[in-house]
Specification:
By secondary structure, the chain is an all-beta fold. The protein has a 4-stranded antiparallel sheet with strand order 1-2-3-4, with no helix packed on it. The radius of gyration is 13 Å and the shape is elongated.
Length: about 55
Amino acid sequence: MPSGTRVLASGPGGATDAFAVSGATVTVWRLKPKATVWSKVQTISVPVQYGSSS
């Protein structure tokens, strides 16, 4: 699994998606059936207001 993976999910066509988190960035990796290498499919920056807990 890719470094930082927090969640695995079923992806399209029998693939497996891994959601990796690093700070305020989530990267989605995909492992297609019979593949041996994960491919990066999306990177999302999530706005996080650090130090603002209620």
